[in-house]
Design a protein that fits this description.
single chain; about 775 residues; alpha/beta; Rossmann fold; Isoleucyl-tRNA Synthetase, Domain 1; 5 domains; five-stranded parallel β-sheet; four-stranded antiparallel β-sheet; 26 helices; 22 strands; about 55% helix; about 10% strand; globular
C-alpha cells in the first residue's frame, strides 16, 4: 500500500463574543505540529482521557500519562481559567482482564487442591514444555530474553522440595498451562468482575498518592452504536466502507499504519486473533465492535447473541455519551495512537456523520527506565508504589515537569537527581526569603548591579511564564525561568550579606509568584486536603512547598523539645535558663496563642479560628525566633565557659529535636542571628540521613586509621633478626642476622633476591627501633 498522508485538519472557529482566549498553542497529533487552541464553546473545554485497563498494579508507564495530564489539566483550569469538563474511563472488560482473571481463578483452584509435590512437579514439567514451545517460536529478542528468564526461574524451582516455593516460583508458567487446558470451563461472570474492581480501587489509591485530581466524571457503562456488519455473532467495523465514504478518513493519526497486521492484532487482543475470528472479517483491517463470547469468556445478551464489547467501542461510546458529538481535547499515551485511537475516531465520526469528533489529540510520550524500554508484557516495569517508596510525590511530579509532556521521559537516577536539585533550590529559596522578610533589615549595602538584575527578573517573571505555558504548556521552560529568578535572588542576598534593603518587597513578590505557579502544578503540599481532590486557592502569601496551619500538637511538641533542651543544660546554666519559659509564652501571645508550662507537658489552649487558617510560617514565627534566641543565649554562655556537654546539647537541638518537627535552624557567622523557619519534613529527614552517613563514614575512616596504626605498631614488636626465621617453606638456612642464605631446595639465594630481602630487613629494623622508642 502506498504511503498515506494525514488529511487536512480544519481549525475550530472562536465563539462569537469570546475574544479573551490566551494565545495557547498545543502539539496536535492530528497535524503533528503546534496549533492555536480554540474550544468549541467559548472557554468551556470538553476533555476525554483514556483511563487504565485495570488488571494489575499501576506502573510508571501509567504515571507518565496520568501525571502529565493532571499537570496539563491544572494549567488549563488554574492558570488559563478554562472551564474544563474532564472525563475518564475505566476499561473493566478486555482480553487482558479476561485472561488474567481466568488464570488467577484457575491457579487458586489448583493451589488449594495441590498436596503432592511429585504431582505438581509433573504438571510444572508439562507447563515448561508449553513455555519452551512458545519461546522457540518467538522472534522478538526482548521476548526471547524474557522467556529464558522465566524458564531459568522455573527450572530452579523444580529443584526445590518445598511445595509452596514450587507453586510460587512456577505460577506464571502454570497459569498459562492451566488456562490452555481449562480456560473454557470458567463460566461465572463474577470471576471477570472481581479482578478489575480490585485493581480499580488500587489505581485510585495510587493516583491520590501522586496528588492526581479525580476526574469530573468517571464512566463505565457500555452501549452499542456503530457503522458495521454482523458476522457469526460478532460485529465488525468496516474500515474500507468507512474510508470510501465522503468526508471520512481511516487512520488519521498514523496513516502509514493502515493494514499493519501486527498492530491490528495487538489492538484486538490475544483472545480475538485466532483463525476463526479472522475468517469472520471482510478485511483483516476491520476491528471488533462486539465480540461473540467463546467458552470461558464473560458474556452479555445482545441482538447478535451473547458476547462482550470490543475495546475501541468502549471509549468512543463513553466519551460521546458524556461529552457530546465533539471533543475539544482527547488525551492518551502515544502507544495508543494506532489502532486504538484511530479506531475511536473512525467509529465516532461514522456515527455522528462528521470528520471532527476530536479537535486536539494530545499524546503523552513514552517512559523508559535508565534508557531501556519499559514493557508490562516483558515484565520490565516499576510500579508506582515502588517508585513512591524511593521518591516523594512532589519529587516525581517535578521530574515530569522538567520534561515536555509529549516527549520520552527517562526514569533514571540522573532524572531524579535533577528533580531533587530543583526541589532543594525551591525549598532553600522560600526559606531564605522568609528569613529576609522576618528580619526586615533595611539597608542599601547590596551591589546596585545585582539589585538591578534581580528587579529585572521579577518584572519580567509573569510574562516569561505565560509565554512558556502558551507554547505547548512548556513546564520545563517555566521551571528554568524560576531557577534563573532564584539565582538572581540568591545573588542579591549574598551581595547584601543577608540584608536585603528595599528589595525585600521584590523578594516577597517573587516568592508569591513562584508559590502560585507551583500550586498550579500540584507541587505544593497542602495540609488538610485529601490528595486527589482540588483544594481551595491558597491565601495571599508564599508558603513554599508546603502549606501547614499551626496545630496544638505542633506547638506542644516545640515547647516540650525546648523544655527538654533546658533540662539537658540546667545543671550548668540553671540561673540563665530560669526566665526562658516566660519568653516563649510571650512569643506565642503575639499570635494570640495561650500556653502554660506545667510540671509535665506544656499545656496549649484551643487555637483561635484565625490562627488555624494561616500558614504556620506566619503564626509561629515569633515562637521559632524565641526558641532560636534562647538557644543562642545558651550556646554563647557554653562557648565562653567551655561547657562541651551544653554545646553538644545545642547541636542536638538544631540537628535533631527541631529538625524532626520540620524546623530548620542554621547558625550564622558574625553577629547575625541564627536563621530559623519551617522546611519540608522529607528534605530535613534527608539532611539527617546524609549527616548520619557522613558521621558514620568519618567514624569508619578514623577506625580504619587506628587499625592501620595498630597493625604497624604490632609489626614493630618483632626484631628484624626474627622476621624471616618462620618462613621455612621458603628458606632453609639463615646468617647471624636472620637473613636467608639458601632457599627451601638448598640453593643459594640470588644476589637480586638478597637485595630485596635486605630492603625488607632494613624497614623492619626501623619499625622495631621506633616501637622500642615509643614503649620506653
Amino acid at each position: 500500500m502506498s504511503t498515506r498522508a494525514q488529511p487536512l485538519w480544519q481549525p475550530p472557529q472562536p465563539t462569537p463574543g469570546v475574544d479573551n482566549l490566551p494565545p495557547l498553542k498545543l502539539f496536535n497529533s492530528l497535524t503533528n505540529q503546534k496549533e492555536p487552541f480554540v474550544p468549541e464553546k467559548g472557554r468551556h473545554v470538553e476533555w476525554y482521557s483514556c483511563g487504565p485497563t485495570v488488571y494489575d498494579m499501576s506502573h510508571m508507564g501509567h504515571a507518565r500519562s496520568y501525571i502529565s495530564f493532571d499537570i496539563m489539566r491544572r494549567i488549563f483550569v488554574d492558570y488559563f481559567k478554562f472551564d474544563v469538563h474532564y472525563v475518564m474511563n475505566i476499561t473493566d472488560i478486555d482480553d487482558k482482564i479476561i485472561k488474567r482473571a481466568r488464570q488467577g481463578y484457575l491457579f487458586d483452584q489448583y493451589s488449594s487442591r495441590a498436596s503432592s509435590l511429585d504431582e505438581v512437579r509433573a504438571d510444572v514439567l508439562e507447563a515448561v514444555k508449553r513455555l519452551e514451545s512458545k519461546a522457540s517460536n518467538e522472534t522478538d529478542p526482548d521476548k526471547q530474553a524474557m522467556h529464558k528468564r522465566d524458564l531459568d526461574k522455573v527450572q530452579a524451582a523444580l529443584n526445590s522440595d518445598n511445595l509452596k516455593v514450587l507453586l510460587t516460583q512456577s505460577r506464571d508458567c502454570l497459569c498459562d498451562w492451566l488456562d490452555s487446558k481449562l480456560g473454557s470451563t470458567v463460566t461465572d461472570n463474577a470471576v471477570f468482575e472481581d479482578l478489575p474492581k480490585q485493581f480499580e480501587r488500587e489505581y485510585f489509591v495510587d493516583m491520590r498518592a501522586l496528588n492526581i485530581l479525580d476526574p469530573d466524571r468517571l464512566v463505565r457503562k457500555i452501549i452499542d452504536q456503530g457503522f458495521a456488519y454482523e458476522s457469526n455473532g460478532s460485529v465488525y467495523f468496516d474500515t474500507q466502507k468507512f474510508s470510501e465514504a465522503d468526508g471520512h478518513f481511516y487512520a488519521k493519526l498514523v496513516p502509514a499504519a493502515y493494514g499493519n497486521q501486527k498492530l491490528l492484532q495487538e489492538g484486538e487482543g490475544d483472545l480475538s486473533i485466532g483463525a476463526d475470528r479472522l475468517r469472520e472479517k471482510r478485511s483483516q483491517a476491520d476491528f471488533a465492535l462486539w465480540k461473540a463470547s467463546k467458552p470461558g469468556e464473560p458474556a452479555w445478551k445482545s441482538p447478535w447473541g451473547s458476547g462482550r464489547p470490543g475495546w475501541h467501542i468502549e471509549c468512543s461510546v463513553m466519551a460521546s455519551k458524556e461529552c457530546g458529538p465533539v471533543l475539544d481535547i482527547h488525551t492518551g499515551g502515544v502507544d495508543l495512537k494506532f489502532p486504538h485511537h484511530d479506531n475511536e475516531l473512525a467509529q465516532a465520526e461514522a456515527y455522528f456523520g462528521h470528520s471532527h469528533w476530536v479537535r486536539y489529540f494530545l499524546h503523552s510520550g513514552h517512559l523508559t527506565i535508565s534508557g531501556c524500554k519499559m514493557s508490562k508484557s516483558l515484565k520490565n516495569f516499576i510500579t508506582i508504589r515502588e517508585a513512591l517508596a524511593q521518591h516523594s510525590p512532589r519529587k516525581l511530579r517535578l521530574a515530569f515537569l522538567l520534561h515536555s509532556w509529549k516527549d520520552t521521559l527517562d526514569y533514571s537516577d540522573e532524572t531524579m537527581t535533577l528533580a531533587a536539585s530543583y526541589e532543594r533550590q525551591f525549598a532553600d529559596f522560600f526559606y531564605n526569603v522568609a528569613r529576609a522578610v522576618e528580619e526586615l533589615q533595611l539597608s542599601s549595602e547590596s551591589d546596585s548591579s545585582v539589585a538591578e538584575d534581580f528587579a529585572g527578573q521579577v518584572a519580567s517573571f509573569d510574562d516569561k511564564i505565560r509565554e512558556a505555558l502558551c507554547d505547548n504548556l512548556d513546564t520545563r521552560r517555566s521551571l528554568i525561568i524560576c531557577q534563573e529568578a532564584i539565582f538572581a535572588a540568591n545573588n542579591l542576598l549574598a551581595s547584601s550579606n543577608g540584608r536585603t534593603g528595599g528589595n525585600v518587597q521584590l523578594l516577597q513578590r517573587l516568592a508569591v509568584a513562584v508559590t502560585r505557579l507551583l500550586d498550579v502544578y500540584g507541587t505544593v503540599d497542602v495540609a488538610g486536603t485529601e490528595p486527589g481532590f482540588k483544594h481551595k486557592p491558597l491565601p495571599d502569601g508564599f508558603y513554599g512547598l508546603e502549606w501547614r496551619p499551626a496545630t496544638k500538637e505542633l506547638i506542644r511538641d516545640l515547647l516540650q523539645e525546648t523544655k527538654q533542651f533546658f533540662t539537658d543544660c540546667s545543671p550548668d546554666l540553671a540561673p540563665e535558663l530560669a526566665s526562658l519559659p516566660n519568653q516563649l509564652i510571650e512569643a506565642l501571645q503575639k499570635s494570640g496563642i495561650k500556653v502554660k508550662f506545667g510540671d509535665d507537658k506544656p499545656e496549649v489552649d484551643d487555637l483561635p479560628i484565625e490562627v488555624a487558617s494561616i500558614d504556620r510560617q506566619v503564626t509561629l514565627a515569633p515562637l521559632l525566633r524565641a526558641i532560636a534566641d534562647a538557644r543562642a543565649s545558651v550556646r554563647l554562655q557554653a562557648r565562653e565557659r567551655k561547657l562541651k556537654d551544653v554545646l553538644a546539647a545545642c547541636d542536638v537541638m538544631r540537628d535533631d529535636r527541631l529538625s524532626r518537627l520540620g524546623v530548620r535552624l542554621q547558625d550564622r557567622e558574625g553577629n547575625l542571628p541564627a536563621a530559623v523557619g519551617f522546611y519540608p519534613a522529607d528534605l530535613l529527614a534527608a539532611e539527617r540521613s546524609e549527616r548520619a552517613e557522613r558521621e558514620a563514614n568519618k567514624a569508619a575512616e578514623k577506625a580504619a586509621k587506628a587499625a592501620a596504626k595498630a597493625s604497624l605498631e604490632d609489626r614493630g614488636k618483632q626484631p628484624a633478626e626474627q622476621m624471616f626465621l618462620g618462613d621455612t617453606d621458603k628458606y632453609s638456612k639463615f646468617d647471624e642476622r636472620g637473613m636467608p642464605t639458601h632457599d627451601a631446595q638448598g640453593k643459594e639465594v640470588s644476589k637480586s633476591a638478597l637485595k630485596k630481602l635486605q630492603k625488607l630487613w632494613d624497614a623492619q629494623a626501623k619499625r622495631h627501633a621506633d616501637w622500642l622508642k615509643s614503649n620506653k
